[in-house]
Specification:
Largest sheet: 5 strands, mixed
Structural class: alpha+beta
Strand order of the largest sheet: 8-29-28-27-26
Strand content: 25-35%
Number of helices: 9
Distance between the termini: 65 Å
Length: 667
């Protein structure tokens, strides 16, 4: 599209292009369904020719998606060129453009469903090649053009678009004035590139077939990247002054409710500035050794130190059972959480004087050991260089207990640029017997929902390779399920507590540049809704780790200094709370930093949300209104802050030698 004006040096770089009557591809498909085979061929050829010209000039688009492709009477056009990369995000490559081309054509062929079977035979091989997971194996734009040309299929007679789409385009043209829908007779594509002999598309890159498609797409689910799209300028033209790039939904998934409002926009509710009285203590007591782990039910608090494990009455703070000799040397940190509670049983990754590296289960009614299983063994499949299990956190769901962590090489060299190999080990919750184990560089930040057999794992490696979220099927002994690629999600490389959440059958995670929350069906990976967030001061924002209410009806998302409550069903914002004094504690990054780096530093009771900020203040927030019930801080706390956990309607806090209980509603 011809460029009219641009300012690459503006605070928010922008460009404006000549108006062209057309309809965004996503809108056309959402309204009128998938395109026909001849139209898909025109779309694929047009996108490939445009990208071939860009790549030949040393330029990468980086924003090809159903939202940035405009359907016009004389062919497809790509908008938003020049915006990507201007905001400091990692620079895309030509192979990224090719993946996005494949995702976009698949969207147009399937109507948004992630099904490569919807592709016509004439396009299946080449589009599968574009979606190949290894960038170096994807075809170039020139090779795609050459592949389509060599098929020598009959050209489309008449208009390439369905009548319903052209009618929509005519209506859009009439709405903005007498603009010719024909584009002035100019052809939509640059001349076909000259293909040197011997540079056609290789069979390795294209002949993937059905088996290859299943490997890329994870069966019936999606492996499509979150392609960027661009928001409209005030005058409705993409890329005009004041426009900003934003991530879109996965290109091959149709959202049932796509939301784009943010807490800082006029479409959302006004922010509530948190302010409340200091918390009143229900009880407080000191021990001989500083706790380094806390876990609680509504009746019992498990306190773990580097000398033993004790159990306190949640109502009074008094000791209930004899102390055990199980200890936790490292305890709870920003990356580890070695305790869990479920169905009357406490679980602990622990050591004993005679046996290090244990997973133990304690009966909450008696304080006695139910079973203990040796954990710190060497991976039998470690190969030439043995690998040892490093335990990071434990989680329980139904009849299974899971231990998640990473593999550490016991010999050989290690490079910081190497991907992290994570693992999941499953144990019978009643007996401690091992059930299954899986490992891989695609397993990181494993999320274990409180029910069901679908787990979620994230994956990323250092550098520019995209991250990924994928389902792990516990019912099939850890078999990999659907996958979704998440470009620019470097934070998923951090080993430790999950940066995702589960709510009412949905998995939720950040995508794109970290400013959009996506909700997908836990079983299939199909998108249900997404919501984009903006920083109040106009800077790019990166949302923190989401977490959910106990009933799964509400999802809480840290956004800068705000905490937003969203309906899990459709992403509707319920309320937005802003930490009081946030401007004095680092501005818009306060809440984000605290919630993204401190493990379980956000939890819920039945009707209260608890969260800590980077000033080491704990807030109790009414889940219905978003207003603070109370705040708690401890001037004498350790430098790393205090430990805390929720049990029933109380919060239990460990600071130095002292354990304190606070009622959710205050006294």
């Amino acid at each position: 599209m011809p460029v009219v004006d641009a300012d690459a040096d503006a605070p928010i770089p922008w460009l404006a292009t000549e108006f062209t009557a057309g309809l965004p591809l996503r809108q056309a498909v959402d309204r009128h369904g998938p395109l026909s085979e001849p139209a898909l061929r025109v779309l694929a050829d047009g996108l490939a020719r445009a990208l071939a010209a860009l790549h030949a000039a040393g330029t990468v688009h980086g924003e090809v998606s159903p939202d940035s492709v405009l359907l016009t009477m004389d062919g497809p056009r790509i908008t938003a060129l020049g915006i990507v990369g201007a905001t400091g995000s990692p620079a895309p490559s030509p192979t990224d453009d090719m993946f996005d081309l494949g995702s976009t054509v698949l969207f147009a062929a399937s109507g948004g469903e992630p099904d490569t079977g919807a592709l016509p035979v004439s396009l299946r091989e080449v589009i599968d090649g574009c979606l190949y997971p290894e960038p170096q194996d994807r075809p170039t734009a020139e090779q795609v053009v050459d592949y389509l040309r060599r098929q020598n299929l009959p050209s489309l007679a008449g208009s390439w678009l369905p009548p319903a789409v052209t009618a929509d385009m005519a209506a859009a043209t009439a709405a903005v004035g007498s603009v010719s829908a024909g584009g002035g007779g100019r052809g939509p594509f640059p001349p076909p590139p000259v293909i040197a002999a011997g540079t056609g598309v290789s069979r390795r890159k294209l002949i993937l077939g059905l088996a290859g498609g299943a490997a890329v797409l994870g069966g019936a689910a999606t492996a499509l990247a979150f392609s960027g799209d661009s928001s409209s300028a005030p005058d409705g033209r993409a890329g005009g002054p004041g426009s900003t790039a934003r991530p879109a939904s996965p290109s091959g998934v149709r959202p049932t409710s796509a939301s784009s409002a943010s807490p800082s926009s006029t479409e959302g509710p006004e922010s509530i500035v948190l302010a409340g009285p200091d918390a009143a203590k229900a009880w407080s007591g000191a021990g001989k050794h500083a706790p380094n782990c806390l876990e609680a039910s509504d009746k019992v608090v498990m306190v773990v130190t580097n000398t033993g494990t004790s159990f306190l009455d949640a109502a009074t703070g008094k000791s209930m059972f004899p102390e055990l000799n199980t200890t936790s040397f490292l305890g709870t940190t920003s990356l580890t959480y070695p305790t869990a509670y479920a169905d009357g049983v406490f679980y602990l990754l622990c050591d004993t004087p005679s046996q290090p590296g244990m997973l133990a289960a304690f009966d909450a009614a008696s304080g006695k050991v139910k079973w203990a299983t040796k954990m710190a063994d060497v991976d039998p499949g470690g190969g030439t260089h043995a690998a040892r299990y490093l335990s990071h956190y434990v989680a329980a769901a139904g009849t299974t207990v899971y231990v998640c962590g990473q593999m550490s090489q016991t010999s050989g060299s290690f490079s910081p640029e190497s991907p992290t190999t994570g693992y999941i080990r499953a144990f019978n919750a009643s007996t401690g017997k091992g059930l299954w184990r899986v490992k891989g560089t695609d397993i990181n930040n494993v999320l274990v929902p409180p029910s069901g057999s679908h787990l979620l794992a994230t994956s990323a490696v250092p550098g520019r390779k995209p991250g990924r979220v994928q389902m792990i099927d516990a019912g099939r002994k850890g078999a990999r399920g659907w996958k979704v690629s998440v470009p620019h999600a470097g934070y998923y490389f951090t080993t430790g507590w999950p940066l995702t959440c589960y709510a009412a059958g949905l998995f939720l995670f950040a995508g794109g540049n970290g400013e959009t929350l996506f909700a997908v069906d836990a079983a299939t990976g199909s998108e249900k809704w997404h919501r984009r967030f903006d920083a109040k001061n106009g800077d790019q924002v990166q949302i923190g780790a989401p977490f959910s209410s106990l009933d799964g009806a509400t999802v809480y998302v840290p956004v800068g200094s705000d905490l937003a409550a969203l309906a899990a069903a459709d992403g509707t914002i319920q309320w937005v709370a802003t930490l009081g004094g946030a401007s004095d504690m680092g501005g818009s990054n306060v809440f984000k930093a605290a919630l993204r780096t401190s493990g379980k530093s956000a939890q819920c009771s039945a009707d209260t949300v608890f969260a800590t900020d980077s000033a080491k203040t704990l807030w109790a927030i009414d889940a219905a209104t978003g207003r603070a019930r109370w705040k708690y801080s401890d001037p004498g706390q350790p430098d790393v802050g205090f430990l805390w956990t929720v049990g029933g309607d109380h919060v239990f806090i460990a600071s130095h030698l002292t354990v304190t209980a606070l009622a959710a509603h205050g006294r």
